[in-house]
Specification:
Two copies of one chain form a homodimer. Chain A is of the alpha/beta class. Helices cover about 40% and strands about 15% of the residues of chain A. Chain A contains seven helices and seven strands, in the order βαββαβββαβαααα. In chain A, strands 2-1-3-4-5-6-7 form a seven-stranded mixed beta sheet, sandwiched between helices. In chain A, strand 3, helix 2 and strand 4 form a beta-alpha-beta unit. The interface between A and B is large, with 93 and 93 residues.
Amino acid sequence: MKKIDIIGQGNVGSHLYKAFAGKADVVNVNSRTLSELRFDADLYIIAVSDNAIANVAERIAGTVRNGSLVAHTSGTMTIDILDGHDFRIGVFYPLQTFSKNVNLDYQKIPIFIEAQNESDLKELSSIAALISRNVVRMDSERRKDLHIASVLSCNFVNHLWTLADKYLEEKGIDFTLLRPLIEETVRKLEHCSPFESQTGPAVRHDSKTIRSHTDRLSDHPEILKLYKDLTDSIELNHP
Amino acid sequence: MKKIDIIGQGNVGSHLYKAFAGKADVVNVNSRTLSELRFDADLYIIAVSDNAIANVAERIAGTVRNGSLVAHTSGTMTIDILDGHDFRIGVFYPLQTFSKNVNLDYQKIPIFIEAQNESDLKELSSIAALISRNVVRMDSERRKDLHIASVLSCNFVNHLWTLADKYLEEKGIDFTLLRPLIEETVRKLEHCSPFESQTGPAVRHDSKTIRSHTDRLSDHPEILKLYKDLTDSIELNHP
């Protein structure tokens, strides 16, 4: 069994630890104390916030065997943030939205790997394949673009649901009534591109409905601003 | 079997027609010619664009039996757009995103009904129950609020996916890599509110990542604007 030390016990670290349990000889190391850190793991995965990666790398450098393979899990940081130690370095980025207490089917989660030579890529790939059916090689620059797209597609989307939920709550309407609509919106992605499946007043250039909505949102300036910007953007993309 | 005339052969009309097939004696009437329109249907459902509803109502008024029950399917129009004829009037609003050629499980789609008296509400309710397990009474004002929330939760969300798709395509990255992330973002709604499950740089107040993204988006002003506005809105809601 591969020996894997996962450093960091936040959302990413704890989900990775669970995913590897039983498939590798894995420990989950507290990033502050580094107690339990092993000398001879096959892979060290640094799963801490972007700002803390360089610091953790420096602190483990004194403890782990020279030439160890060390990867971080960040979508935005380049591989070379791990430079400057007697490490082989890499990236092990699972593209997912992690929340504590929500279980995940890891097999479906794409894992994006990067390393500095073919043999390290193979090593990362075979370890990633223990937990995912979807292992993809991607360099740091493209990973940044992917991360931006994931912020649009996931974080911002979830925030629009937050605003809708808040708005409906004020009006005494249950947000869960929207769940079938939301699920269908996602399901349509299986059949056609989001561009093709766009619906709603903006793509129809239905200015009457748009005006009725913006009038009604006049006492919700924060939602109104996003409503206008997103409507403009839809109209621009669907002239 | 109930006799139902669905007037309008666009997305909503054709999906409703399919949903009722076999469960009611249903015809789908072309809204321009009105050929096949029956004199004595139990319910006339006007499934045309908002702007055309009043006109269709006027045109069928001469043909159908006095006192017929006539409903429209709009999320935004009030019930009284059907006023002024010898009709009993109502609303029959299925909250869903309809695309031609994508089949739907109608049983899950909430149908919002409105009428002017209890017996008409019961009639609409029993007809809606033929095709949906989720029939909800809702007045015109609350239906407008629901419609606004559905634009935020579905149309705008789909547009963010369109922008992500376009951006990734430029970079040579496959949008379908984001599908597991998107599906998980939806699935989390089963477990907690969207507010609770918010993730990403904005909710972490990770200004370094946000700046790296906005720098990178400087040649995509349209996405950049939405990126900034949505980030501001997340930060405002999660101080």
